[in-house]
C-alpha cells in the first residue's frame, strides 16, 4: 500500500512558560485507505501532534512527508496549498458559515483552490452531498439543520477537493451515539470504498476500537 503520510522523529518543545518537551520522537506511517485513531489521556499531546501533521504548526524538529514528498521545509504558501488540496479537516465543532447554504459551504474550499469552474465545483459539491445522503439539504442554510446533519456537511466540505487524508479532532465529540455511529460508518465507507486515509483523534473508546489501528499516546510518546 502506498504511504500517504509519514512522521519521522518528530519532536516539539514549548518554550514558555518553561521549556517543555511535549512530543518525543514520534514515528509512524499512514497508508492509503488506513482508518487510524489516536487516543491518550488529556494533555498527552494529541492536538499538538495533529496540528503539526496538518501543517498548521511548523515549529518542530523532524520530518513530515505527504505522498512521499518531504514537506517540512515548504514555504507558508506551499503549505497553505497542501492543506487545501490534500488534507480535509473535520473538527468537534463544524465551523460552517451559518448564513450560507449547505451547498455554498461545501463549495468554499474548491473555490479557494481556484482550479475548477463554478459549474464543476457545484457538480462536485452535489456529488459529495449525495455520497453523504444529504443532497436534499443543499439549499438549506447551515443554521437550519441539525447537529448530526451539520457534521455530515462538514465531512462533505472536507471531501470537496478529493484530499489524500482526512484529519479529525474529536469529530464525534459533540454528537449523540446515533449520530456518532453515522459518522463512524461514513468514515469506514470512505476508507474502504474510496481508499481515503483517515486519522482521527478521539476520546471515544468504542469509536477507536472499531478503526483499523489505534495509536496510543502517553506523555508525548507513542506507546503502542
Ligand atoms: N501553546 C502552548 N504552550 C505551552 N504548553 C502548551 C501549549 N499548548 C499545549 N500545551 C501543553 O502541551 C500538552 C499537550 O497538549 P495537547 O493539547 O496536545 O494535549 P491533548 O492530548 O490534545 O489533550 P486533550 O485531550 O485535553 O485535548 C499539555 O500539557 C498542554 O498543557
TrEMBL record:
Record bears the keyword Metal-binding: no
Keyword Transport attached: yes
GO molecular function: ATP binding; ATP hydrolysis activity; transmembrane transporter activity
Source superkingdom: Bacteria
Coiled coil: none
Record domain ABC transporter: where: 5-223
InterPro entries: AAA+_ATPase, ABC_transporter-like_ATP-bd, ABC_transporter-like_CS, MacB-like_ATP-bd, P-loop_NTPase
Keywords, sorted A to Z: ATP-binding, Lipoprotein, Nucleotide-binding, Translocase, Transport
Pfam families: ABC_tran
Record's GO cellular component terms: membrane protein complex
CDD domains: ABC_MJ0796_LolCDE_FtsE
SMART domains with a match to the protein in the record: AAA
PANTHER family found in the cross-reference section: ALPHA-D-RIBOSE 1-METHYLPHOSPHONATE 5-TRIPHOSPHATE SYNTHASE SUBUNIT PHNL (PTHR42798:SF7), LIPOPROTEIN-RELEASING SYSTEM ATP-BINDING PROTEIN LOLD (PTHR42798)
Stated family: Belongs to the ABC transporter superfamily. Macrolide exporter (TC 3.A.1.122) family.
Stated name of the protein: Lipoprotein-releasing system ATP-binding protein
Organism phylogeny: Bacteria, Pseudomonadati, Bacteroidota, Flavobacteriia, Flavobacteriales
